[in-house]
Specification:
Layout lengths: L1 H8 L3 H10 L4 H16 L5 H32 L2 H25 L2 H29 L5 H5 L1 H16 L11 H6 L2 H10 L7 H7 L3 H12 L4 H15 L7 H5 L5 H15 L3 H14 L7 H26 L1 H24 L7 H18 L1 H11 L6 H30 L3 H19 L8 H13 L4
Main location: membrane
InterPro entries: GLUT, MFS_dom, MFS_sugar_transport-like, MFS_trans_sf, Sugar/inositol_transpt, Sugar_transporter_CS
Organism: Casuarius casuarius
């Protein structure tokens, strides 16, 4: 089971985290590349506004690719299987890596943009299919911890990208094309290791009707003595579905039986993206400068933020099956609300005392720790748990699409929010975190140690009224 988390994660959410962070290091080198390419083609300098536009397209096309990947990820998981979809996804990553790698020697920045788009598709599919696979292969008592594998590998990808992007490694002027094309290594690793693991047992029995392969897979994952209980759980779900086929995303919107589950996924996904975590990273450099850290050392201090996220994802993975999902996610949002208040005050009085920037630094790390402990990891875990087999792929497609649209929207609007509100922008995120915490407290039941059918029954009263 542990090895399957590693085999799935290395080419799944790791790619998303890695490709989000590596684009920051070579920003200036890509600007120079765009200028030089334009000059050699048209024998005139690139207009500064056009340069900004081309750079924006290069950076943000990743989000568009992610949205496309999220929209096709669920369908791939149904047609090819969870494992088959992940294996096929690596072909897209390798192709995207090659295009980005050859863009510099060929002098074609268009290949860089296409490569980023393909890597975005790869990340969108990975974020959709990986938690689907992990949620389905895990036994009830380990489901939360295994599902947290998605978050652990995502934060591990961010930290690895930050380290490899240092100018002493591949972030320098000479090696940046290698940095962008290094995404092919996790893809190759998954192509080597994942075929050794079975397909999702739930998919094999419920979607394919292949009982023999399901039993073999369960024995591999849970051992020949303890697989029987999981088998009975899958059979009960299969009987309850009564041959119902996998639903399309639009069918979920008209299905009263999953109304509140769907609302929950939409609220939690938007809450995660709009929680202010992007604002924290935006303000980090400014606060580190105010604390007297030199510009050359800031990339190394920023590694601390990546290490913080990684540490809390691991901690959350250890705690989730002990203390439950509700406690961690509500607690995470409430702590983020508290640190937003502290950060607003410390940013307002930043110039007043020499120790105030250190309060801001502490708040930044505390905010990141709070995010990683709850909203960062548990959002994906709950998406897997709130739906039964026929609705789960479609739910991930909807959740993924909402996530990428929110990610793109906050990327576009965030500079205007910061310019307009300055340090008071955290008041917006404070309200958002408090509202999401209240929603989860009122609506979402504890899902720890419950089967997917038991969780569905918990929502039955909400969906159909108290008397049904």
């Amino acid at each position: 089971l542990l090895l399957s988390v590693c085999a799935v994660g290395i080419g799944g959410t790791f790619q998303y985290g890695y490709n989000v962070s590596i684009i920051n290091a070579p920003t200036q080198h890509i600007h120079s590349f765009l200028n030089e390419t334009w000059m050699s083609r048209y024998h005139k300098k690139l207009n500064p506004d056009l340069l900004t536009f081309l750079w924006s397209v290069t950076a943000s096309i990743f989000s568009l690719g992610g949205l496309c990947g999220a929209l096709i990820g669920g369908s791939m998981a149904i047609r090819l299987g969870r494992k088959g979809a992940l294996l096929m996804n690596n072909i897209i990553a390798i192709l995207g890596s090659i295009l980005m790698g050859i863009s510099f020697p060929t002098g074609m920045f268009e290949l860089l943009i296409i490569g980023r788009f393909l890597i975005g598709i790869n990340s969108g599919i990975g974020i959709c299919v990986q938690p689907l696979y992990l949620g389905e292969v895990a036994p009830k008592h380990l489901r939360g911890g295994m599902a947290m594998g998605s978050s652990i590998f995502l934060t591990g990808g961010i930290l690895t990208g930050q380290i490899i992007g240092l100018r002493e490694l591949l972030g320098g002027e000479t090696y940046w094309p290698l940095l962008l094309s290094s995404s092919c290594f996790p893809a190759f690793a998954q192509l080597v290791f994942l075929p050794w693991f079975p397909e999702s047992p739930r998919y094999l029995l419920i979607d394919r009707g292949d009982e023999l392969s399901c039993v073999k897979a369960l024995k591999r994952f849970h051992g020949s003595l303890q697989y029987q209980m999981e088998m009975e759980d899958i059979q009960r779900e299969c009987f309850a579905l009564n041959g119902e086929k996998s639903k399309k995303p639009w069918q979920l919107f008209t299905d009263r039986g999953v109304r509140w589950q769907l609302i929950t996924v939409i609220v939690m996904t938007m809450g995660q993206q709009l929680s202010g975590i992007n604002a924290i990273y935006f303000y980090a450099t400014y606060i580190f400068k105010q604390a007297g850290i030199s510009a050359e050392k800031i990339p190394y201090v920023t590694l601390g933020t990546g290490a913080c996220e990684c540490l809390t994802a691991l901690t959350c993975g250890l705690l989730i099956d002990c203390v439950g999902r509700r406690f961690l996610i509500i607690g995470g949002y409430l702590l983020m609300t508290l640190w937003s208040i502290v950060l607003t005050f410390s940013l307002t009085y930043q110039e007043l005392h020499s120790w105030v920037p250190y309060v801001s630094m502490t708040s930044i790390f505390a905010f990141i720790l709070s995010f990683g402990l709850g909203p960062g990891g548990i959002t994906n875990t709950l998406t897997a748990e709130l739906f039964i087999q026929s609705s789960r792929p479609a739910a991930y497609m909807i959740g993924g699409a909402i996530s990428w649209i929110s990610f793109f929207t906050i990327g576009m609007l965030f500079p205007f929010i910061v310019n307009g509100l300055k340090q008071y922008c955290f008041l917006v995120f404070l309200v958002e975190c408090a509202v999401v915490a209240a929603f989860i407290f009122i609506v979402v039941p504890e899902t720890k140690n419950k089967s997917f059918l038991e969780i569905k029954k918990e929502f039955h009263k909400l969906n159909f009224g108290r008397n049904t």
